[in-house]
Amino acid sequence: MVFIPRLFALLFLSAAVSLAQQDPAADRCPAVPAKPILSKLTDPFTFFNKHPVRTKADWECRRAEIREFLQRYQLGPLPTKPPTSVTGQLSETGAFNVTVTEGDVNVTFTAQIQLPTVDAVGGPKGGVPAIIAIGVPTIPIPPDVAVITFNMVEIAHSTGLQSRGKGFFYDLYGSDHPAGGLIAWSWGVSRLIDALEKHPETGINAQRLGVAGCSRMGKGAMVIGAFEPRIKLTIPQESGAGGSACWRISDHLLHTRGVTTQTAGQIVKENVWFGPAFDSYTGQIGVLPFDQHLLAALIAPRALLVEENTGIDWLGPESVWGCQRAARTVWRALGVADRMGLSLPSGHNHCALPETSKPYVEAFIDRFLKDKEKVNTTVFYTSAEFPEYEDKDWIDWDVPRF
Ligand SMILES: *[C@@H]1O[C@H](CO)[C@@H](O)[C@H](O)[C@H]1NC(C)=O
Ligand SMILES: *[C@@H]1O[C@H](CO)[C@@H](O)[C@H](O)[C@H]1NC(C)=O
Ligand SMILES: *[C@@H]1O[C@H](CO)[C@@H](O)[C@H](O)[C@H]1NC(C)=O
């Protein structure tokens, strides 16, 4: 048992070295194995250097470490400095133009604001709560909450491998910038929020923002919630691989059980959602010092409601179940388990939120965007049985209480 963590560290080191290319120690390190090592999910409560995470302050540092790993090996990096300037301009139709300047280059993207049709919390002077819908709204948004539609493909294109390096993000930072599409979208939402904070005349309260999206926009919503702390509520819907499913469990479902599940190896051939660095790891996910449960965990202690679908194997419902059980241990450690929910009901059309899930969406919006503190947001539900799933196959950590 003792040698496993060391082996793991060595494998990871050799992977890191091959990425860096120039370290002379590379010759002395063992070759990275060609087959995936389907080890368990990574322990949220142990730093990479093996020190335990014991307090809330430790968790802040662990979160910083996870953010760093996700950027380096999977998503690609955010720019390290804020842009030179961000300004907003609102038209009478609610089109909100956000101009971002970096050095002497600027880009302007447009988010569409649809204000509530009925009286809302905080409005009109205090600003109303809003959900930023990635691409298109696919959850029921209550009439007293604004909808801000964010056209993510302006920021980073998403039409296949030929989209690499295309979009406003890359116009500003260079077409060879190593950020993948998902983290570029997250950068775009952060700039939108910068502009909303400066322009209260939009009617939006930038302290009460949620984000939601489905499918690839669900993967985007998860990454945006993880990397933008000003988002109070994150609702990824049917995000599957690259969102709420874990790479290791999905690899197991496909390679060991023959379930047609989307894996890391497939997804990087389909689109440019991840940074180019991830290509080197998709055949050996086991060497990575994280999995998608830790992407979700970056959102803690803020609110996360994961909406999924048992009827589409491609989304990896069993992988989502295990992955989000693992993620929830972080909210449990922080003493706020009811701020993290999963609704995994039976099959329905992709992105058509079923009736069963609607009350959970409403409850999370009520509590986290409208401050209805007493609303019950305890939900961790699936209609599936997953007879072959066992926590002990993937989760081998005890949950501390900070
Ligand atoms: C917003 O940007 C669009 C596209 O660049 C432009 O056509 C429109 O005039 C701009 N609107 C405002 C209010 O600046
Ligand atoms: C954006 O750049 C153009 C020149 O390419 C310039 O005319 C325009 O004033 C700039 N806009 C802002 C808001 O800086
Ligand atoms: C909250 O709802 C869950 C079901 O989603 C239920 O099990 C629990 O008892 C409820 N808690 C309270 C305090 O009503």
Automatic annotation (TrEMBL):
UniProtKB keywords: Hydrolase, Lignin degradation, Secreted, Serine esterase, Signal
Keyword Secreted assigned: yes
Signal peptide per UniProt: 1-20
Superkingdom field: Eukaryota
Record's GO cellular component terms: extracellular region
EC number assigned by the record: 3.1.1.117
GO BP annotations listed: lignin catabolic process
One GO MF term attached to the UniProt entry: carboxylic ester hydrolase activity
Reactions mediated catalytically: a 4-O-methyl-alpha-D-glucuronosyl ester derivative + H2O = 4-O-methyl-alpha-D-glucuronate derivative + an alcohol + H(+)
Ranges for domain 4-O-methyl-glucuronoyl methylesterase-like: 98-335
Compartment(s) of residence: Secreted
Uppermost EC category: hydrolase
Family assignment from sequence similarity: Belongs to the carbohydrate esterase 15 (CE15) family.
Protein name: (4-O-methyl)-D-glucuronate--lignin esterase
Native organism: Candolleomyces aberdarensis
